[in-house]
Amino acid sequence: MVASDLDRTLIYSSAALALGMPDAQAPRLLSIEVHESKPLSYMTEDAALLLEHLGAEAVFVPTTTRTRKQYQRIQLPGPAPKYAICANGGHILVDGVSDRDWHEAVVRRLAEECAPLGEIRAYFTATTDLSWVRKHRVAEDLFAYLVVERERLPEEWLKRFGDWADDRGWTVSLQGRKVYAVPKPLTKSAAMREVARRCGATLTLAAGDSLLDADLLLAADRAWRPGHGELADTAWSAPHVDVLAERGVAAGEEIIRRFRVAVAEHHASVPAQLNGSPAVLPDPA
Prior knowledge:
- This protein is of the alpha/beta class and about 280 residues long.
- About 35% of the residues lie in helices and about 25% in strands.
- The strands form 5 sheets. A 5-stranded parallel β-sheet has the order 4-1-12-13-14.
């Protein structure tokens, strides 16, 4: 099973592409998300082809902090994933529909272990400044985030808010122009384990770039992170996590390539039997 973060891991906004090569050498890009009639997210055409193959070789589970509505704007190449994890683990989608029992269990745990969302929102209202905050948002009634002017965001406010939230059972993460406040028990890793249990997965692979992905990477059997993002900025790693040199959209392509190689190696070590013969998988190159 492959559980991968999306934004700045597999898919990229125009601002995050990191196309450092001469224009004539830039890869061909495929738009995979449109918002308000404008293309919003991209991957390379080669990455799209690799992802199509991966979807046929393994259970691919998009794993995102996006809300269900935001996730459903994305049109990933390949077969539609049977499972998806949204809202940082607050929702497990099965054929596009949220699993009610899972969501209700998550809500109960947050109520028992964390300060209420209203307290976080009140802190935002009392301490933020319109000179650097563009929007206040609540996601799925589970967590909150700010859209900020990154260059104007006061570092001292971010640290103070992080310490305050930590004491109340919440995690703070800065990703691009967004400051997230997420309850600590609301994790991608818990949802990944549940999907792996349902799938009977014997190997779990993961990738991600932000602090909200760290628990996902730690929970997987093998994992990768790109050369950009919060995890790269803090030099975060673990023994089973491979650190890629690639940044931007090139990292997304390389991550999918690494997924395919790992899946092929796993199948080769424990071959599926089809009419008494090992299954033959497409070349992951």
